[in-house]
């Protein structure tokens, strides 16, 4: 494998061409210069290895910013293995916290299902009744709403496939205050749960535009 077009690089790694271009815009991989007189840009074998690295790191939960730092370490003469280990340890702690939260959610759902009669009128539904109270069955108080939290819906143009939607999702989830989001390329929209005291709807739209897509605020509701 040597000197490939962007399409061949994308096929070798199993991603879309737009994903490669997105990584280029983020500075994660270098875009080759176009040959004099025209023609296709050609990519070295190193690009495939680098994209593989990025994808594997993403699968382990590293953000694009963290991946950029890991890639920089590879070319930093003063860096050593302890720098990489420190970042991996921090990521492991982050994953452990998420697992703990998911376990609490699972415990709560299990408790709700165990107390559900499974039949009868809705007025006697134990699940609906429990969700209406301030105390979840895990024993933890619910927070009806975090201060400043809103759901922002963005209308997004230029998404052609699920790969595009994944790029937009990654961009949005890296913005300060974003707690989660869903992106649909079929509907051309994204729904973002965000603390607007940290990032406004317009800033979210601007971040999407920076990734090469058009974006505007459709609604911004409590």
UniProtKB/TrEMBL annotation:
Secreted keyword on record: no
Coiled-coil positions: 85-112
Domain HTH merR-type residue range list: 1-73
Pfam families in the record: HMA (PF00403), MerR_1 (PF13411)
Keyword annotations of the record: Coiled coil, DNA-binding, Mercuric resistance, Mercury, Transcription, Transcription regulation
Domain HMA positions: 150-216
InterPro entries (alphabetical): DNA-bd_dom_put_sf, HMA_dom, HMA_dom_sf, MerP/CopZ, MerR, MerR-type_HTH_dom, MerR_fam
Task performed by this protein: Mediates the mercuric-dependent induction of mercury resistance operon. In the absence of mercury MerR represses transcription by binding tightly to the mer operator region; when mercury is present the dimeric complex binds a single ion and becomes a potent transcriptional activator, while remaining bound to the mer site.
Protein name: Mercuric resistance operon regulatory protein
Lineage of producing organism: Bacteria, Pseudomonadati, Pseudomonadota, Gammaproteobacteria, Oceanospirillales
